[in-house]
Amino acid sequence: MHRFLTQRPSPAMVVALVALFVALGGGAYAALKLPKNSVGAAQLKKSAVTPTKLSPAAKTTLSTPGPEGKAGAGGPEGPRGATGPRGDSGPKGDTGSAGPGASILNWDAAASLTPTVKTIGTVLGVTFSAECLIPGAGEAEAKLFVLPSDGSLRWDVGTEASDNGTNEGRSSSVNAPAGTVLTPTQIAGAAATSGGSQSDHNSQIVELAPVRGYLNVHTTASTQSSAQTCHVSVMAFTAG
User: Fold this and answer.
1) pTM of the model
2) Average confidence (pLDDT) over 100-117
3) Is the backbone of residue 225 left (phi > 0), alpha (psi -120 to 50) or beta?
4) CA 17, CA 13: separation in Å to the nearest integer?
5) What would the pLDDT profile of 63-75 be if each residue is shown by its tens digit?
6) How far is CA 62 from CA 38, 48, 51, 59, in A?
7) Cα maximum dimension of the chain
8) Interatomic CA distance for residues 110 and 229, integer angstroms
9) Is there a contact between 232 and 106 (Cβ–Cβ < 8 Å)?
10) Engineering a disulfide at 58: which of 54, 68, 139, 193 sits with its beta carbon 3.0 to 4.6 angstroms away?
11) Closest Cα to residue 150, out of 114, 176, 115?
């Protein structure tokens, strides 16, 4: 026995003893030596922790919703949508009252197959007259005529026209020297097709002759409400 204890063990014996030590006490040794919080999700096998292994406190924590997060940043503005269809034309508005220093002329008539030209009045040295005729079945047309006091007419005109649902803006000018316009001459008009249509022309005019001033001329023809009618209004301001 004394000989066995004093004799140096062989290398094979050392390896065998180490293996035996690890097999019998390695688990306990590892448990004693692992530092706190050294085992995490990376060290656990998949599905190693099941619901039955969770404490009541852990279950309560996991089932309680967390605080609401801050709203995220707004997204980029979307592309512009396609233009919608054009709406129906609204009814003709009433002619406004004349402003300070203004003169206003109004005329309304039913369309006729044999119309008569009617004098409306005179403003800024120009006499206005009109007629309302039926150019075709169910249609209506208003015609506006002018007769300057000295035969001259110098106008710069800008017109907004709505003809049976089609809108258009246009400009024109008239430059007739004195002695040129000696009979009533058509200067404007509006024609409405059958079936409830309306043609509306609104002109802003700068008059340089025969008298300097400003005009607003409104001409309308309508077949709405099963009636064929015409309307003309003229508002005039003398130049300051």
Assistant:
1) 0.59
2) 93
3) left
4) 6
5) 777 788 888 888 8
6) 22, 17, 11, 5
7) 157
8) 4
9) yes
10) 54
11) 176
- Residue 112 tokens read as 């006729």
127's tokens: 């006499």
How far is it, in rounded angstroms, from Cα 128 to Cα 14? 132
Q: How far is Cα 23 from Cα 31, in angstroms, rounded to an integer?
A: 14
Phi, psi of 30 (to 5 degrees): -65, -40
HEC per residue, the chain: CHHHHHCCCCHHHHHHHHHHHHHHHHHHHHHHHCCCCCCCCCCCCCCCCCHHHCCHHHHHHHHCCCCCCCCCCCCCCCCCCCCCCCCCCCCCCCCCCCCCCEEEEEEEEECECCCCCEEEEEECCEEEEEEEECCCCCCEEEEEEEEECCCCEEEEEEEEEEECCEEEEEEEEEEECCCCCCCCEEEEEEEECCCCCEEEEEEEEEEEECCCEEEEEEEEEECHHHCCEEEEEEEEEECC
Burial pattern 129-158, b for ≥16 Cβ within 10 A else e, equals bbbbbbeeeebbbbbbbbbbeebbbbbebe
Tokens of 2: 């004394």
